[in-house]
Write a structure and sequence with these properties.
Layout: H1 2-25, E1 34-39, H2 41-57, E2 61-66, H3 72-79, E3 84-89, H4 90-100, E4 104-112, E5 116-118, E6 133-137, H5 143-152, E7 156-158, E8 172-175, E9 180-185, H6 190-196, E10 201-204, H7 206-211, E11 222-223, E12 233-238, H8 245-254, H9 257-267, E13 272-273
Parallel strand pairs: 1-2, 1-3, 6-9, 6-10
Antiparallel strand pairs: 3-12, 4-12, 4-13, 5-10, 5-11, 7-8
Helix pairs in contact: 2-8
């Protein structure tokens, strides 16, 4: 009998220890003072580093896990191994949720890495001549993002009911200047095409523009606006945790004036605070 009791005690202890061990592998609970966030190296991890002392004053210890790919962060938040991630925009998050069944939600936007339109011939989008060709990347998921520049200027209209983040070139119903889009190249080649070829205009991601010494703020004829922009980079958490005290503290820190000032000073228009 004693032997049976001993065996049962060992089994119970093993189960308890296993449960504790499992818990240790995941992110801290709702009341934990540790916040573990997965983020892209730049500017996301850099902004989180700036948020560390802000959160420290609120009693939180921020741990940053730098992740270099775009598939792992959502997987780890969904499994509970991270409290949050910071690397993506709304259209990408929605695609991940739809394709992979993740139960994730945005708790707020932090910054925008703006695309910009560059032209050596014209000073504004409205100056573009009839039949002008605009060079863009071959990423179909960004077609709505390209079109937004021209929709905002009243140069292009889309099918009724089409959201800008879901739009494609095939959704154009009115094109006042008969603007053509050349989408035969990858995004990284656009700066060199713009600099070396006779193009009317090119829409270039800020990270690739900066590599070629182009300033989105100073050299472009149109810069993506942060207001109501679906491409602003956000903080995502697992559904049900958006109201956790530590998550509220995290997004408050990242949206603080201190972080906005840091963004404006460090990145000179290549990254801008979300509104």
């Amino acid at each position: 009998m004693k032997k049976i009791i001993s065996i049962l005690a060992v089994l119970v202890l093993t189960v308890v220890l296993a449960a504790c061990g499992s818990k240790d592998k995941s992110a801290g609970g709702e009341d934990s003072k540790t916040i573990t966030v997965g983020a892209s190296p730049a500017p996301h991890a850099e902004l989180l580093e700036q948020a560390k002392p802000i959160l420290k004053k609120e009693g939180y210890d921020l741990k940053i896990k730098t992740i270099n790919d775009y598939t792992t962060p959502n997987k780890l938040v969904n499994s509970g191994e991270l409290d949050a991630n910071f690397f993506q925009h709304t259209p990408y998050l929605n695609t991940e949720k739809k394709d992979k069944g993740y139960k994730l939600v945005s708790v707020g936007n932090v910054h925008l890495e703006p695309m910009a339109v560059y032209s050596k011939k014209y000073k504004s989008l409205k100056e573009l001549p009839k039949g002008a060709t605009v060079y863009v990347s071959n990423n179909p998921a960004e077609e709505g993002r390209f079109l937004k520049f021209f929709v905002d200027e009243g140069l292009i209209k889309l099918k009724k009911g089409v959201k800008i983040q879901d739009a494609h070139f095939s959704d154009i119903v009115e094109n006042k200047k008969d603007i053509k889009f050349n989408n035969k190249q990858s995004a990284e080649y656009l700066p060199k095409i713009y600099q070396n070829e006779d193009v009317d205009a090119a829409i270039i991601n800020s990270n690739f523009a900066i590599e070629q010494k182009l300033s989105p703020k100073k050299d472009s004829i149109a810069l993506e606006k942060p207001e109501n922009n679906p491409y602003a980079n956000l903080v995502a958490v697992k559904e049900g945790h958006e109201k956790d005290k530590k998550i509220k503290a995290l997004i408050k820190a990242l949206q603080s004036q201190d972080i906005k000032d840091y963004i404006n000073k460090k990145y000179d228009g290549a990254v801008i605070p979300a509104e």
